[in-house]
Amino acid sequence: MGVDRREALLAGLAAWGVGPVSAQAAADPLAGEALYADVKTYSDLGEHRTGTPGDTATTAWMLKSLRAAGYDAQPQAFDYPVFEVEATALKLGDELFDAFPYWTPKPTPPGGVSGQLSLTGGPGKIALVFLGPGAGGGLNQPPPAAISEAVAAGSAAVVVVTESPLGELSALNRTPKAAPWPVPVILVAGSNSQHLRIAVDGVDARVHLDGRTVPGKAENVIGRRPGRGKHLVISTPKSGWFHCAGERGSGVAIWLGLARWLAATSDWNLTVVATSGHEFDGYGGHIFTDTLAPKPAETRLWLHIGANVAAYDFLVRGEGRSIVRLAGPQPGRLLACSDALMPLAAKAFAGQPGYAEPVDIDRQKPPGELTHFQNLGYAPLIGVVSLHPLHHTRRDLPDVTGPAMLEPVARGLQAVLAKA
What we know:
- With 420 residues, this protein is an alpha/beta fold.
- It contains 11 helices and 18 strands.
- It has helices at 5-15, 23-27, 32-44, 53-68, 145-152, 193-199, 245-265, 283-291, 342-348, 369-375, 403-419, and strands at 72-79, 82-92, 95-98, 100-101, 113-118, 125-130, 157-162, 185-189, 204-214, 217-225, 228-237, 268-275, 299-305, 312-317, 322-329, 333-337, 359-360, 381-386.
- The strands form 3 sheets. It has an 8-stranded mixed sheet with strand order 1-10-12-11-13-18-16-17, sandwiched between helices. An 8-stranded mixed sheet has the order 3-2-9-5-6-7-8-4.
- Helix 1 packs parallel to helix 4, helix 3 (32-44) packs across helix 7 (245-265) and helix 3 (32-44) packs across helix 11 (403-419).
- The longest helix is centred in the middle third of the chain and has 21 residues, at 245-265.
């Protein structure tokens, strides 16, 4: 699939500093409608994979927004190769299945790669691998062993069936700058699982993975506003698979809302950072903490806003497998913080499902990037993160969240920061 014309146009406009800074955000940056406007802006900038036009457009939009709020905002650029995906598919006879590469991709020759579909793989065969739910989707995990074994067996290509709660194709995170697989490896949706299990015995298959790797650059966005005392740091990732409106967009909107609110109401020493490279084991975040982050001794508090922090729950209904949004938040919401912040966090998030019972990271290992910050010695720390049934899927679009979902989470974090 090539770069969409609209995505390219938005990227070009954002690169010249043309883009919306919401009037609502200026009036009350933590109001639900203002936050949701930023989610939609973020999603509309395109797919957010590291170093792509959508990621570049997001950098420009964030820099403009932070500068308008009074920050000295600068990009922190780093080299990152970009695989430009043109087309990915699995073909069985006349049936065509949507697919997506597993990083780092190796393209097929023109016309694709053909072979018998096989559960064991081997020379000349196309291996079919079934993953369990969540396998390969987390940070700092090696590739699932079944994929590596199928490649090592000499298979001509590997087809990986990803299992997500709603049967959608789910992209997998990867080690930063991993070498391309020696053979094409593609991902297909779990909703195809039964069909593929039936078809596997000796069926001829063809894998298409068209695209190319080009040198690229990505950027972290860093905003600073010098003030009183040690640094208050607020971080969130800005890159991810597909449009990631709930996974990344809800956190980006709350991050930006808090940054605007703090600049307008406090005299604190502020550092806000949005990092690229997240889907590659948080690569940009590591670059920031290795270079430009305030030292732990210079930091009064670090707040990290993780994945899916303000999103509705979804389920599949009926034989047509319609994806339906429910009235409440998704399960698996987690508020984690240092012991000193536990009473404050519990009070600030009282009544919010999942977040109302914070986890003490001084007694239990924290999730995601919080582990990295804790290992570096930052304290106190607070972070929010959640699971979501549309995590890492193309269906993660703006309706995954909304004003009524975003504002309570933003207000909870506001209350913590106001008293911390």
